[in-house]
Amino acid sequence: MGEVQRNLIGGVWREAKESSENRNPSDISDLIGLYARGGAQDVSDAADAAQAAADGWACDTPQARADLLDRVATSITACEDELARALAREEGKVLPEALSEVRRAAQVFRYFSGEALRLSGDALASVRAGVDVEVTREPLGVVGIITPWNFPIAIPAWKIAPALAYGNCVVFKPSEQTPGSAHLLAEIIHTAGCPAGVFNLVMGRGSIVGEAMAADVRIKGISFTGSVPVGRQLAAACAASMKKLQMEMGGKNPMIVMDDADLGTAVSACLNGAYFQTGQRCTASSRLIVQSGIHDAFVDALARQMQALKVGHALEEGMQIGPVASANQLKGNLSYVALAAEEGCEVLGGEQLNRDTEGNFQAPALFLNSSNDMRSAREEIFGPCASVIRVDGFDEAVALANDTPFGLSSGICTTNLRFAREFRRRSAAGMVMVNLPTAGVDYHVPFGGRKGSSFGAREQGSYAAEFYTSVKTAYVYVG
Length: 479
Ligand code: NAD
What we know:
Elements: E1 4-5, E2 7-9, E3 12-14, E4 18-24, E5 27-37, H1 40-59, H2 62-78, H3 80-91, H4 95-115, E6 122-125, E7 131-139, E8 142-146, H5 154-165, E9 169-173, H6 179-191, E10 199-201, H7 206-215, E11 219-225, H8 228-240, E12 244-248, E13 253-257, H9 263-275, E14 285-291, H10 292-308, H11 327-342, E15 346-349, E16 365-370, H12 375-378, E17 385-391, H13 394-402, E18 409-413, H14 417-426, E19 431-434, E20 454-455, H15 465-468, E21 469-477
Parallel strand pairs: 1-5, 8-9, 8-11, 9-10, 11-12, 13-14, 13-18, 14-17, 16-17, 18-19
Antiparallel strand pairs: 2-3, 4-5, 6-7, 7-21, 12-20, 15-16
Helix pairs in contact: 1-7, 2-4, 3-4, 4-5, 7-8, 9-10
This protein binds nicotinamide-adenine-dinucleotide (NAD).
């Protein structure tokens, strides 16, 4: 079984009082390892170390920060196969998906290596004679980063890289379900020469480590990705210590398929958007809003391709859909499959599957004849399940697409330029896709949503500076 993997605090690998098991969701007899489970004191020590390092890091040159991030990117690329296998083993996404995620993490570090050199400000003439005004951006100081299990290396990368690029020190708490990928990333950052205290890893439970981070006054901002209920709790806790907060949360993303859509394009966008990565993407297409003229042909083709997807062990060659990430998540998914049937849907697939190993395997599911007021069509399932809602026309489709408490991503498949243009304008989502899956985004442009899906500044691209810096306006009387 080996030793317990430790937290990184102040540049030192430190044991915690407790540890937790990490198991492979494709084969629960496969124990990946034991990982430290930190407590409130570990958070306090990490915040201390980060605070002590903050001035030095903020005053270091942008070149030093760019070089560190570039070395991290290079190290990720150098061991991408090993990282991808570890990620697939721990989280359960199939190996090609895991490899793309690892490559994305390297791209993000490389991108922010450049951004470290590009942070700019403004110089303006004052309304008063003899005065100059200068607007600059400064780091927040110590930031907390709290991440979910579904992208255990890419999401930490797109938070840690801008935090460091803009001169902040970091206390990072990964999901307790995926400490392995986080630990490997922390090893890479440490080995790349990150100064002691600038980057700290505290693994452990959300209710202990996460809450201690929210309460710690030395942590000036928290970037969180996770579920809406936890986000709400975190926001309340952060208000007490007046922290800056950025939150990316759930989705129930609509994909409209118009009668004039290219059938092949629509089916492939929905197959990808709904089921790839086992449907465990905040941007997954979980409501397929389909116009009546194309409905039957679309459902036939999508159902055929969905049923042909190969579901199995994430590390087995040729598999297209890995296991559900945890037994708990699988239980929740199965209860939504049962609920959809109770609500009157015709359910295709969705059953638990047996494979050679004992894992959390589930057949992808389609809920036919769904309606937008059913719970199965309104609540985020976060599994390989999609509802099909039939509509008569464009206006009805847009109204249903927007009728949701979420607003992360949305899509439309159409060959009509007017529909494409109108939908981009009227969609109440932060990201809109035309003839593309609702999931799958670039790393150099803003990522985020509206309504219950997001709170605070956008992530990624140059927009990331909004959260990770604080604006200062300086007035100088020059006579
Ligand atoms: P979660 O909310 O259960 O946990 C997210 C993180 O918060 C974990 O690290 C957890 O330990 C921590 N946490 C739990 N309780 C806490 C508390 N009281 N205080 C502080 N931190 C606490 O989410 P999850 O199950 O890990 O991930 C799935 C969810 O994440 C889904 O809702 C999904 O839509 C969302 N997600 C959103 C995006 C996005 O960018 N919008 C991306 C990926 C996942």
